[in-house]
Protein 1
Amino acid sequence: MRRNETRRNEIISTTDEEVKEEDIIGEEKFEISKDAFKFPVNCCSKKTILANKKLSINAIEFSYSVWQCSKCKKEYLDSEQAKRLEKFWMLEKVMENRSIRMERAMNFDGKTFFFRFPKEISKGWHKGDLVDINLINSENNMFFIEIKHQH
Ligand SMILES: [Zn+2]
């Protein structure tokens, strides 16, 4: 498994169209059960209460809330908070250079700039899927891109 870890920081080269599937599958994923609970949930036969939490990486603070049991202190995340936390963890991976990275050549057709995604990554994408682009920093041309399926 060492192999996967060392590979994590490599930049997949532009000349190589093929991104090996194990590069993608080898990534860890956070399992958060979405909509598994109705909120507020009961724990220790009592209603959980909303508690504010804070996380920080490199001086970036992130606030979120959890439903906490006042007795056993167990925390439950609702799906909205879970999604926010997942995004934060993703950004953390990017900042710590633990994310899978790719370099692609920028294309220009005379009007529009575009680049191609490797087909190993775009499996299951459909024409008409929504591309959600968050501008992070315009000076550095940094974006957070999310492909959303329209079903
Ligand atoms: Zn409890």
Protein 2
Amino acid sequence: MVAGDAGVSVGRTRAYLGQCRVDDVRRCRERFGGVTLQGLAGLKIARQLARTGDLDGVDLDPAVYRNRPAKASNQLTLPGIECAPFDWIMAQADLGLPVIRTAGTRIRAGRIDELKAELSQECPVDVTVVLALDTGWLGRRHIDSLEEELRAADRDVSVLLAAPFNPVDSQRKIEALRRVLRWAGDTGRTLELLRTDLTGLPAVLEGAAVAAIGFSTSTRHVGVPFAARQRDAFNRRRRSPLVFVPRLLHWQRANVLGNLAPWDGAGVTHCDCPVCTGSGRDLLRFDTPPDDTPVDEVREHDELALAGVIRQIMAADDPAAELKFRRVNAVHRARSVASSLEVALDEPPAWLDSWD
Ligand SMILES: [Zn+2]
């Protein structure tokens, strides 16, 4: 971490990759400065990179919390076969990774015993404790206990938040997240946010050491099962790709952006990333019939545009002021377009509007 102007330590962002190949890791490391890989598939890729001495900037989230709750233990099990717990700590230590994370189990809101158990694990090497927390921990009923347990344990932690959509979807939850950030700032403990979205940006300006940002809905938080109505709405919209919109600091469906075509994109769909500049067109080009979606080009745009926005903000003289300026602009633009043109853009996520 480096000291920011205000005396608060400024952390770093990196990419969080789910399913990926070695090429993806190399490319994203170049663009984002570092990559966090996930689970056993990620371990396999890390070992592949290690064989050629190319593991710089790569670390691992064991992601054992993704197992179904009944199996949520530090064990990889096959039906009918008892296995010894897989030693994630030693697997990471053997690779010489700069940060070693515990396996991590999913902790439901209010299960203080489970939280204590995770936080009190003893390990033979220095670790950061992975806490995959239901977003309810940020609610009024549980935030005091969460903060109390973090203080009592006094350990480095890697926090992931679980929810069907956006885990930090209200002002109250943002304030709770900021309390956790203040705990880290006050105590000098290392707090990482893994599997996050751009909410990680204000977080690294306010005390988080690391924000590992995902590019897909499944790597931007820990998913939980949908309610039936949510699933229906999701399926109706899913055939058009989500596209990162730099001017809104958020993702929108390409077919929704397409509704802005009569207004030439209404100042929303412009993008300066190399792939958009090279094509000479803006984000409206991604509104295609579902079978013609240029998936690779969307992904390329998402990565480059996201990396560009992060780089510009972090390189500003005053990153916090720059971020705030862009947040206010993004919200204003989204709201005025949605209301004056009656285009049903997704609402700006809560952090854009209510971080402070
Ligand atoms: Zn672009």
